Amino acid sequence: MERKDIFIEAEELLSKLGDPNLRIYDAKIEFYLGMSPEEAAKMPGARKQYQAGHIPGAAFFDHQVFSDPLSEYEYMMTTDTMLTRGIGKMGISNDSEVVVYAPHLIPNATRAWWILRYAGVQNVRIMDGGLAAWQAAGGELETGENKYEPAEFTPTFNKAMWASMQDVQAAGEKLEVEVQDALPQDWHDQEHIPGSTCVPLLNFEAGLESFPSQDELDAQLPEAKPGKQIITYCGGGIAATVNAVAYLVSGHDNVAVYDGSLFEWKGEGQPLGSNAGE
After folding, report:
1. Which end of the chain, C or N, has fewer beta carbons within 10 A?
2. What's the fold here for domain 3-157?
């Protein structure tokens, strides 16, 4: 896939506003790292922040709708049946043009894109740069909440886009599979899936609103040999989608996201590697 097939610039989206076939979604997830549960409970959630200001016409992409309510691991993918129902209920048909974006955190948008592409939504792109890019292009914000009329959606699932814990376990015995950690190097040094390499494409100190440029990807993304499968993971399957999309943009299609990532791996008692003290 080419970059233009995955990303849309704010200026182009601005020119499309009002198209009745266009569906725009704010895919924000709010993480309150370092806060106690009591402190986090006092902060505005993702939906509240969406309601306070979003692209005109945009609806809220509720990641919980696409998460398995029976899983003990947050944001694990729901069943295909529930996914199909959720996509149609949020107003997406097979003919819709879909744009997702995420203020401040591009991984939330790449996760939404990955989910929709897995289900067979073909015409879906990520607006790079979030609301900062939108406003810089002259776009205005509106408040409140929008919802699209439900639509009929027929899925075509791409099972190769996700990896299970069993796939990751088996990867250690396969030269044609490489497991990559998308988290920062210091996090990887503390704990990681044994045998995995660390490829931190995002600078967690400099802000996460924009996707790395192609020059940055060329400099940081390890070359994947033809035929080799790349499995990306992170803490909970969100940041890992940035690395997965990066490989698609760079022309390597054989890439999967380990949905459960470290939350599941650790929760199921799997062994961990560490570089601490080295």
Report:
1. C
2. Oxidized Rhodanese; domain 1 (3.40.250)
Which of these ranges, 36-40, 45-49, 113-117, 205-209, has the smallest mean pLDDT? 36-40
Asked whether the predicted pLDDT for residue 278 surpasses 70, the reply is no
* Domain 160-267 in the same topology as domain 3-157: yes
- Residue 12 banded pLDDT, cuts 50, 70, 90: very high
Q: Identify the band that residue 45 occupies on the pLDDT scale cut at 50, 70 and 90.
A: confident
Instruction: State the DSSP string of the chain.
Output: --HHHHEE-HHHHHHHTT-TTEEEEE------TT--HHHHHTS--HHHHHHHSBSTTPEE--GGGGB-TT-SSTT-B--HHHHHHHHHHTT--TT-EEEEE-SSBHHHHHHHHHHHHHHT--SEEEETTHHHHHHHTT---B-S-B-PPP--------GGGEE-HHHHHHHTT-TTEEEEE-S-HHHHHH-B-TT-EE---S-TTT-BSSPPPHHHHHHHSPPPPTT-EEEEE-SSSSTHHHHHHHHHHTT---EEEESSHHHHHHHTT---B--TT-
pLDDT(217) > 90: no
The CATH number, out of the four listed (3.40.250.10, 3.30.499.10, 1.20.1070.10, 3.40.50.1010), of the domain defined by the range 160-267: 3.40.250.10
